[in-house]
Amino acid sequence: MAPIEDSVDSGHVSLSSHDTALCVIPPQDQCHSVDQLRSLYDKGHGKWPPHVNLLYPFVAPEKLLQTKTLLQDKLQQAMQGHQGNKQDVRLKQAGFFPHRRNNTIYLCEEGSISSALEFFRSAVLKALGHEPTPCSFHLTIGQSEDRTISSREFLLSKARLLPSMEFPVHSLAILVRELVGDSKTQSRMRLWGTIEIESDEQSTSPPLTEFWLQKTDGRSNNPEDEGISESAVAPFSRQIEPGTTFHFQTNSGLWISGHPTEESEPLPEEIGISSYNVLIDSEYPPSRDRDPLLLEAILSQKGVADILVLQEVSDDFLSYLLGDSRVQELYPFTSHGPPSQEDLGPLPNLRNVVVLSKWNFSWEFVPFHRRHKGAVVAKFDAISKNAGSTALPLIVAGVHLTCGLTDGSVAAKKVQLLNLKNHLSRRYASNPWIIAGDFNITTSSQTINTALKNKSISAQTTNTLEEMEAIFPDTGLLDAWSVSRVAGTDEPRVGSHDDDDLFEGEQGSTFNPRENTLAAATSGTSNNRPQRYDRILTRPQGVFRIAKFNYFGVLENDSTQFSVPSDHWGIRTSMKMLADPTEASTGRTEMLESYSVQAMHTSGALTDNSALTNALLCHDMFPTDEEVQARKDAFALVERVVLGADGENSDIPMVIVPVGSYSLGVWTSASDIDCLCIGAISSKTFFKLARQRIHRAGAQGVRLLRKVDANTGTMFELSVNGISMDLQYCPAARVVEKWAEFPTLSPSDPIFNLSILSLRKLKPYRDTLYIQRTLPSISTFRLAYRCIKLWAVQHGIYSSKFGFLGGIHLTLMLSWVCKRMAYDNATFSATDLVATFFHHYANFEWENGMIFDVFFHNNIPRYHRSSQEPMVVLGYHTPNSNVAHTSSVPALNTLIKEMKNADQRLSQRGMTWEKFFGVLPPMVNAPMLSPGVTDFLTSHENYAKITIQYWGRSLSKGKGLVGWVESRCVNLVVDIHRSVPDVHVRVWPARFTNKQNRDWEAGIDDYQGCYLIGLSKTEGAVSNPTKEDKILAKQALQKAFQKFLDQLQSDEKHHDPSSCWTDIELVKPSDIKDLQLDDREWGNYIPDAEPDSDDEEDMPEEEDLPLPTANPHTAVKLPHRPLSSPVSTTKLRPASDILNRLRWDPALSPGDYIVGYEDRFLGVKETSLERWKTEQTDDEFIPQHRIMYFKRRGDGVVVWERKTRIDKIFGSGIGNGKA
Questions:
Q1: Where are the alpha helices (DSSP H) in 980-1066?
Q2: pLDDT band at 632 (very low <50, low <70, confident <90, very high)
Q3: Candidate from 284-288, 918-922, 995-999 with smallest mean pLDDT
């Protein structure tokens, strides 16, 4: 039996139980803003309702029934005798209670006014036999993080922004504690009952419900958590919360909720979406000094869009932003109203995601497993996809994932991404999506590798980072930056650092401590690596396609502004709306579907980029710091010498730029430097001037080795302090005038209305610029390039002049695979790129397929493939030419075989990069042969051995002889393949020599070497040929050999019998077992005193030629005498002069003449002069030095011939042919 003092009937009841409470609970419709804050900051949320305690502790649970009956009667009696309106409560003022570790933030009534709360407490205490005592009535909002002033004031500032809570008290709530599940520690307060203040007849209030209760057993009630570990799900509400969209009402000047009446407007042809992390750099007080900068960045031409997704938005900044009239006009709809507006309330978090738009939208908040994290998912009915009778609106999700590179933070990011993906896939499976925001995913391989090395993260975390990147393509999402980058429609940041020092994953960065002072401050140092944290991902679903991409909030070069708005750059993408859904499957999209690349992924030890790098280092595939500096110095020296920067004729407008491997940063110590000089003077003047300046710079280490008539025109081979350089020239005065604008000029710009020869010379540089401009990761490309080049060198298939791969082949082939993978997968490693390269080209349909960049060529390039081109690799800019024109069927078969073997080896279990490249031979006096060379020397039944002996002194002539022989080897391979089709033919692209020849002392002017062509039966060949078959095959071989020798020895320019000897023979493997590779230069340097060529440099520039004044097609019979007096009785006018005269002289018709030229494989061929001029075929791009003669179509009279030196056009050479 209870003690007398505890009996309710005794008039004195004990108030000591913490299992019960008597409180006032505000109406549920006034609790939204309060509960939004409590869910994040109050540890009692989900356990206690928003309430004001009258008595806690309260009576024991077993006495609740008696106590309720007593208090019901006493309170109603008290109310009958009470005058005035004492039932109203007004919670408006914010305050705090200090504790040892933090502060409790609350709402209370203002001042010391007599309140209903005090009245009810006093009445209850008296009814239970207690004297009234003072009490601080309050409604708890939450607890601060710690006791710091900033933490306390931050939460206090949010509490002050809460709308005032005003309500009458109709009842008092009795709460009783209940244990949750099987737990003995977790509990929650249930509604036991209410004490009605008014009688049943008077009461108009709705019944009180337990709206505050939620699951707190650690399990998610969010269906989007399917597939996510329970340990990753937080013990707080995960319910998806519908949001309220606000629109600006011009008349009242307020942001109000609801859906205004809208006039339907047609959608523009393009819509833009921007994403910007505006940075909160202090919890409290709010920093406002950057607000004007942020506002101007958002409203700038590059930043303004139709939909704007902001991250790290604070109450203070949102109020400032939405208070600007320009924002109100551009973005009249917002997911969150200005907190400074009295009736709206604060934002829930310190860092919030906010969506603004020019169109109305509805939205929902998808909470993540960590407090303060979630996605704002907006639905735009104005932009929709028609699916039959149903419209599927555009879904835009704004995100800001957990920051940091730790095991925990990376795991959290993955869970958040999966949570969002599951939500979108469930609710909006067929809708178009856009996901924009700060993903906080570390992309720099250097940062990740350093963290792994320092054991800041585990190997599992690096796998998790890769798995996160795979979530996007698996869901059909395209990265706007990657798509725009590979298509060349992204706008590079002005003033960004050189890509040369970027690591994998750093290109396209939006958070760069090296450029952004705020990023350096937030990351702790300016030495931290750039990261591409911010992204815009799209799933178009036929509604739109990505058109452009740009950055904003970036300091321009000419800016007088010294501070940046945020630590992140803003990003913006434009999307072209597709009126017809079928439009999405036409044009480039259809081509991309037709020209797909299957992405391959390495496994095991092959996934390690550092292992690949180490393997390449062992094979000297990276230049040393000394070599890098030596080449920089060499290029700078050539630039000074050629341009005359030391003072002589420095007023001549010229520029000189590197092209090829050096400009792409993929060169090795064995590479030369290809240079292109562009100027306003003629080719003839340039080469004369350059020759003079180079000779005068001999004391500085600049040497002219020889002049070469290359496919693209005249070229100087130089040696600059031991570094080989090739120098070409392009006459293009207007290009030089606009040189500063050149990288950004459109391909259709009138400045490129140049001659075919000039365009051909500019093409390598223009193509290089485009590749650098559109590669998604230059560092990934470079590492993969070096890997593939080393493989090609080892297997004897790296040499374009022998019909195999060259630097330009690798560049074009690899860049296409790289860009296509970026389009499909957004991010990938260099090892994945290498594996994909081998798999793609090992299975490529070479017979009918062409390799070209679909992103550059919107349609299939207009290229007429000849029967002599088994392999077609096209570049970018005009003119379209096949860089693989020297390829042959045997060479292509060898390439395919080697690529299939590489593809297969990379798929083997246990394969490593060290095994893939093999062990280096030991360093001894005589260099050992690599495994590839050794295998070649032993894997064929017979070899065609081409022997050369040279005893001349001139290095120029020695190089010319070697180059001439090498260029003819392709013809020999083709002839052998045609003559003996059952034989597999393979040339090794290097010169061999005997050991004794290699070890001769320097100064012995007698060089001997050979080239080898392996001959072996093909798989389908007859196993036991007859004797007659063998004889016929041998005769066919000898015929091909003799034709080859005749071609070699008939060229007087390169083959001088007085200083060289050549021969070819069929040998057995045993005859060549002692051969070694010969890397010597044949000859000694002698200053080149060769007179200027009679070919290109004498050619008038196209713009200087006389324009026709009469119909050029009018046939005029040539007079019997020369048309002009001979300029020389011995020097023959070059073919280029004849070609241009026949084109432009109004007295002559180009249709009346035929051009005879030497084909690489078929000998002398003919074509019309008109066809040579107009069609972009292989004929047009044949170097002019291979023109043999011109003749009249009507009577077949030869009017110019190189061999006989006849010139009936100008009268040069021997004139009309008379001795």
A1: 995-998, 1027-1050
A2: very high
A3: 995-999
Pairwise CA distance, residues 1151 & 1165, whole Å: 17
In a domain, 986, yes or no: yes
* Closest C-alpha among 1003, 1013, 1001, 988 to residue 1077: 988
Is residue 67's pLDDT more than 80?
yes
Question: Domain containing 557 — which CATH number?
Answer: 3.60.10.10
What residue type is assigned to position 387 of the chain? A
Domain boundary among the residues 759, 774, 789 is at 774
Closest CA to 124 of 43, 23, 215, 2: 23
Question: Does 878 share its domain with 743?
Answer: no
How far is residue 598 from each of residues 595, 806, 832, 840, 1212, measured CA to CA in Å? 10, 24, 11, 7, 59
pLDDT at residue number 795: 94
Q: Which of 347, 31, 79 is nearest to 208 (CA)?
A: 31
Burial code (b: 16+ CB inside 10 Å, e: under 16) for 1172-1190 equals beeebbbbbbbbbbbbbbb
Number of domains in the chain: 6
Q: Would residue 209 count as lying in a domain?
A: no
Contact by Cβ (8 Å): 92, 164: yes
Is residue 273 domain-shared with residue 368, that is, in the same domain?
yes
Asked whether the bond before 57 is cis by omega within 30 degrees of 0, the reply is yes
Domain shared by 841 and 988, yes or no: no
Written as one letter, the residue type at 1086 is: I
Q: Is the pLDDT of residue 920 over 90?
A: no
Q: What is the pTM of this model?
A: 0.78
- Could you tell me if 1061 and 973 lie in one domain? yes
SS3 1012: strand
Check if the beta carbon of residue 246 is closer than 8 Å to that of residue 337: yes
Once rounded to an integer, what is the mean pLDDT over residues 646-651? 54
Identify the pLDDT of residue 656. Answer: 94
Which range, 73-82, 227-236, 305-314, is most confident?
305-314
d(CA 190, CA 216): 14
Mean pLDDT across the stretch 25-47?
A: 89
Question: Which pLDDT tens digit goes with each residue over 454-504?
Answer: 999 998 998 899 888 888 887 888 999 999 998 888 887 655 555 667 888
Query: What is the domain-level CATH number for residue 150?
Result: 3.90.1140.10
Q: Are residues 790 and 736 in the same domain?
A: no
The DSSP code for 1054 is T
768 compared with 1133, residue with greater pLDDT = 768
Closest CA to 170 of 153, 195, 146, 193: 195
Query: Domain containing 146: what range?
Result: 20-196
- Cβ-contact 431, 393 below 8 angstroms: yes
Between residues 841 and 1113, which one has the greater pLDDT?
841
Helix axis angle, 1027-1050 to 955-979, nearest 10°: 150
Report if residue 951 sits inside a domain: yes
Q: Report which of 326, 366, 318, 313 is spatially closest to residue 344, judged by C-alpha positions.
A: 318
| pLDDT at site 757 | 86
- Give the tokens for residue 472: 């996007």
The reported pLDDT for the residue numbered 371 is: 77
